[in-house]
Amino acid sequence: MNSIFNSRVSRRALLKAGTGLLLASALPPFAVRAAASGEYRIVATPARARLTGDGRPQTDVWTYDGKVPGSLVRLRQGEPARLVVENRLDQETTVHWHGIRLPIAMDGVPGLTQPPIRPGESFVYEFTPPDAGTFWYHPHANSLEQLGRGLAGALIVEEREPPAVDRDLLWVVSDWRLTDGARIAAGFGNGMEAAMSGRVGNTVTLNGRVSEAEPFRAGERVRLRLVNTSLARIMALRFEGHRPVIVAIDGQPSDPHEPEGGRILLGPAMRVDLMLDMRGEPGKRYDVIDDFYDGLSYRLTELAYDEKAPMREHPLDALLALPRNPLPEPDLASAERHALKLQGGMMSMGGTSDMGGMMGGGMMGGGMMGTGQMGMETRAAWAINGLSMTGDGHAGMEPALTFKRGRSITLTLSNATAWWHPMHFHGHSMRVLTRNGKPVPHRQWQDTVLMAPKDVVEVAFVADNPGDWMLHCHVTDHQMAGLMTVLRVA
User: Fold this and answer.
1) What global pTM score does this model have?
2) Domain boundaries, position 398
């Protein structure tokens, strides 16, 4: 199938569906201006990018450091980082360091954790990453438009003892809605889309470009870091002719395992680290297919083997497992138990009758979805436990739950809607215990848990990071239209 579906799918079809750059071990091809180890200056600025290939028009985008994706940030586990973010956009912005367990003042939520960065101003983010792994960064102000126009970058925290691989590759996979002239389509904040699958695009890029093929050599072992920076697109990736092994989810090491059914589920904001032993034949090509949406599968890229003889005849004799991070283990026997229900959206089970305060006077944030400069207004379409918090975050957001610092917590998340939701919890990682009553295997810790319709997922964590932390759906339309709340650790 043509890899430029990656070019066009009709909006009608999407609604009907319900909807590397190579990183060698020496790294990085993403040039970054680091004053010293752990020090970066990152500039949010308009730029132009050729997303859809040579000979096609360039696209006006918003970027970090003039590139899509933005500059790769590489930090070291347990070492202080200082990141100065300068805003050269014509509207306010912030940066959220997605998945990093950091102090609340560095979390990047405007009003709730910091004042927004005004045009022409800068903000200094300082934190020490406790966990190694694959993370990313993006705005949390007018996030629907800013992320949709390209503001996203990858962040890698290096292990003290990295695994033995031949290459360490990064694939930042992004979804765009483009016109025939390769312009970013208008219409951010569409109310109908916000109540359904969100703004799913018609073009998918790999490291900032539509990818025809990515080069490999037979016999090599590759660590492949997948990052989904899309507004709404969920992916289910199949590596034809290969058997990828998942070794980390959302930056946290898991027990090495092959994905169920050979498909790697990757919701917006999620990351998955794979180990790939390249066992294909020299000179041959193998498709990487995304077939999450029924009837809308497409080829993301091809694994293109060069003609050289295999690097080795047998797979590398080295452990696949990554060293674990210093996550506090929850005490399940003494844990407090809480529950949150996701509600609303079109075609949801039970309609809107169970949404309580959201449909009456209980809306948070004024009950309208404001998106900064665009002047768009969309009524809240979603709720958590009957309350909607719309927008990006603001002062005075009352917590849905309050936890005493140091307590172990189990949280049951129930999806009473007809739509998928990647639920992201700031400042923490959650151990996923059960899904629909069945234990989750392979020791999985996540900061963004993908929930199918009717899913009931039980997670656990230690509430050891004080502050008011956002919990929200990372389908950005859903967040902006109310699928967000605050959990307080005090």
Assistant:
1) 0.89
2) 336-489
